[in-house]
Write a structure and sequence with these properties.
Strand 12 (258-264) and strand 13 form a beta hairpin. This protein has 16 helices and 20 strands. Helix 1 (11-22) packs parallel to helix 9, helix 3 (103-114) packs across helix 4 (118-140) and helix 6 (171-178) packs antiparallel against helix 7 (182-189). The protein has a seven-stranded mixed sheet. The radius of gyration is 22 Å and the shape is globular. It has helices at 11-22, 61-68, 103-114, 118-140, 153-160, 171-178, 182-189, 209-216, 226-238, 280-287, 295-298, 331-339, 384-403, 419-426, 443-446, 471-484; strands at residues 3-7, 26-30, 42-45, 48-51, 57-58, 80-82, 85-90, 96-100, 218-221, 242-244, 249-255, 258-264, 267-270, 273-276, 305-313, 323-326, 350-353, 368-376, 411-417, 458-460. The model has no long low-confidence stretch (mean pLDDT 93).
Length: 490
């Protein structure tokens, strides 16, 4: 049986190992941390449980199909419930909007709150669906770097309707062309952050993202987001994937233009296939230092990072749900601070995730576990201690105003995660959450492909390569890689 080595046990690395086992490869996963999951991890602090990384779960069928691939019932490993309220939105003037599941109910309530016609909102969401339907088979589900991808009817259909994709406009320009309400424009601009980009730079095709929430819905995994990692790790173990934790890769061994294995401090592992789930930048700089570097790709602007406060709160807030957004009063200036000034805005948009709304045991009785995140620039050597201190003050003040309470007196436990820690813990260059930013119309094509064009038998998965970051796209990257690798019939 041929051997495959996967470098990194992030969600894409685990998914790749599961798919390669289905192709009859003997698979070993090397992970520098002592645990699987990468960013999709969890911890406890003074009786409060926190998911450390991704908090939004959509398109769960991508997880389910990994179990089905091996004849397993996903529900024996992993369960989730669909959320009726997708997200609660708050503005400083007292405006509140609850985005509900389904385009019709969303449009009806948005029309009432923002004064836009329901028909116009439904038309926008219809365009969002159309953009997704036209581009997903081409840009998300296949390699962009293989000729066969473009020699089919899906590509021809997308080319014929390219004018409807809003590639020549920014997301902000696209939204302004559809709506007059500044708040509704801001709400739809927010979807640029789903891939760590700015709505004032990323192309208008990103307006397809709302369709993913409206059509596929949002879900809460029983046991929290970390349960996704735990269930896939359990499946991988049961089907024979070998995991070696606390063993970081030092070099991808290349001989005569072919990847032949991986070297760690503990030894050399010969392999017929090598897949890197490590961020593409350190993959080349650390694991392939003597090989030709994809300079243009490695110079791409990186996505935003995050500053996260994990707070144990000694009070329940009935007006909040699982997902909550408190908008900045100057959204454009916030993104200028992040991407141009490389600093934090004094009035940030704040995301509050509270899993104890769904899992009571995630917090002590009468309390809530708050995952409080603001978008942040990557790590460029800023004074993060100073930035965190000032940002904490701004966040507490803003939330206190919006919730009409003195929040500080209810914070009973606390720890933080900043871009430096994200970079150190996950090898994500500059602490970027999504690899490269999508702040240009050509960004998708500049992402590194899922295979090496210079080194045979070398492949790449995860959020820093095609098709991008976030759980669904990372799982799709694993699927693309598995389809590029031939079955092992030996």
């Amino acid at each position: 049986m041929q051997r495959a080595i996967v470098v990194g046990a992030g969600i894409a690395g685990i998914a790749t190992s599961i798919r390669l086992r289905a192709k009859n490869y003997n698979v070993t996963v090397l992970e520098s941390n002592a645990y699987p999951g990468g960013k999709l991890h969890a911890t406890e602090n003074q009786g409060f449980r926190f998911d450390l990384g991704p908090s939004l779960f959509t398109m769960p069928h991508f997880v389910d199909e990994l179990f089905e691939l091996h004849g397993q019932n996903p529900r024996d490993y992993f369960n989730y419930k669909k959320k009726e309220v997708i997200c609660n939105y708050f503005w400083e003037d007292g405006t509140r909007f609850s985005a509900t599941d389904g385009p019709n109910s969303f449009a009806q309530e948005a029309s009432r709150i923002f004064g836009e016609s329901q028909e116009r909102i439904e038309k926008y969401l219809g365009k969002s669906k159309r953009k997704y339907d036209l581009t997903a088979p081409l840009f998300l589900e296949k390699s962009l770097h293989k000729r066969d991808t473009y020699l089919n009817k899906d590509c021809l259909k997308a080319i014929l309707e390219i004018g409807q994709l809003d590639i020549g406009k920014t997301l902000d320009e696209t939204n302004k062309a559809n709506f007059k309400s500044e708040k509704l424009i801001q709400l739809f601009n927010r979807f640029a952050t789903y891939n760590g980009s700015s709505p004032y730079e990323t192309p208008g095709i990103m307006s397809m993202i709302p369709h993913l929430e409206m059509h596929y819905g949002t879900y809460f995994p029983k046991g929290g987001m970390h349960q996704i990692t735990k269930s896939l790790y359990l499946l991988a173990q049961r089907i024979g994937v070998e995991f070696r934790f606390s063993e970081s890769a030092e070099e991808i061994m290349v001989e005569r233009g072919t990847a032949i294995g991986v070297q760690t401090k503990k030894g050399k592992y010969a392999s017929d296939i090598v897949v890197s789930n490590m961020d593409i930048y350190p993959t080349y700089k650390k694991l392939l230092p003597t090989q030709e570097q994809p300079v243009r790709t490695l110079k791409q602007e990186r996505s935003s990072s995050a500053l996260i406060f994990y707070w144990g709160i000694s009070k329940k807030f009935e007006q909040l749900d699982l997902h909550n957004i408190f908008f900045s009063e100057d959204y454009k200036n916030e993104f200028e601070h992040i991407f141009q000034r490389k600093t934090l805005h004094p009035d940030p948009t704040i995301y509050v995730n509270i899993t104890s709304k769904e899992e009571a045991n995630d917090a002590p009785e009468g309390c809530e576990n708050w995952f409080v995140m603001v978008n942040a620039p990557g790590n460029f050597g800023q004074d993060w201690d100073s930035l965190k201190s000032q940002s904490r003050k701004n966040i507490v003040q803003k939330l206190s105003r919006c919730l009409n309470t003195d929040l500080e007196q209810h914070i009973v436990s606390e720890f933080t995660l900043d871009p430096v820690q994200i970079e150190n813990n996950t090898s994500s260059y500059r602490g970027a959450l999504y690899g490269a930013a999508s702040n240009s119309r050509f960004s998708a094509f500049l992402r590194h492909p899922n295979f090496s064009s210079k080194i045979n038998n070398l492949y790449f998965c995860g959020g820093s390569v095609h098709p991008g970051g976030g759980i669904p796209l990372c799982l799709l990257s694993a699927k693309i890689v598995s389809e590029l690798i031939p079955n092992n019939d030996q």
